[in-house]
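User: I'm preparing a small set of examples for a lab meeting where we compare how different chains pack in three dimensions. I only have the primary sequence for this one, and I'd like the structure in token form so I can line it up with the others. Please keep the answer compact; I'll paste it straight into my notes.
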Amino acid sequence: MSDGPKSFFLGEALHAYLIEHGTPPDGVLRELAEATSSKMGGLAGMQIAPEQGAFMTLLGRLVGARQAIEVGTFTGYSALCLARGLPEDGKLICCDISEEFTNVGRPYWEKAGVADRIDLRIGPAADTLRALPEERVFDLAFIDADKPSYAVYLEELLKRIRPNGVILVDNVLWGGSVVDDERQDENTTAIRAFNDLALEDPRVEGVMLPISDGLTLLRVL
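Assistant: Understood. Below is the structure token output for the 221-residue chain.
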């Protein structure tokens, strides 16, 4: 697992306590996290936190998700968690641009017995989403990719998520930079703009949770 908590507002001891008092990552998830750390080096911080993965699996089961979409797969930890929240005949479409990154996760999807639920599509995520029929048949979506395109991904997903379906959006607190006026880089300004956009969109209602680096839940109306 990662050396420290991804949640910037949690200390080591409190983060450990939090993990211990929820459903812990099993052996396959731990192996995937270790492989990510070993092969990705400094990029391993892009992987979601274990408590977030557990939350996403639980949420998928709670909403009865059968069809899901993930925008930004990286090495596949989040995909494994989402796929585990689906029934055996459920399907998860994963959108990513890197075969190098996603190949890290493939063996662990197989080991966990969920590979047949995952449809990985390599290419620009916006193009992958636009190629899908504009039918509101998906139950759950997760956005965790390039921050300047968050608004584009949300717009495309809203055409395809059923009423009462849920869209999860990662990194919405961006390490606390969203409230730091001195931070005006592209990613920070994009996250701020997206957060304002989601708040004002009449097609959803949402809540921002302090899970990991900030996770927004949007219920589609």
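A couple of notes for your slides: The helical segments are 12-20, 27-40, 50-62, 77-84, 99-112, 125-130, 150-158, 186-200. Residues 24 and 83 are 17 Å apart (CA to CA).

User: Perfect, thanks.
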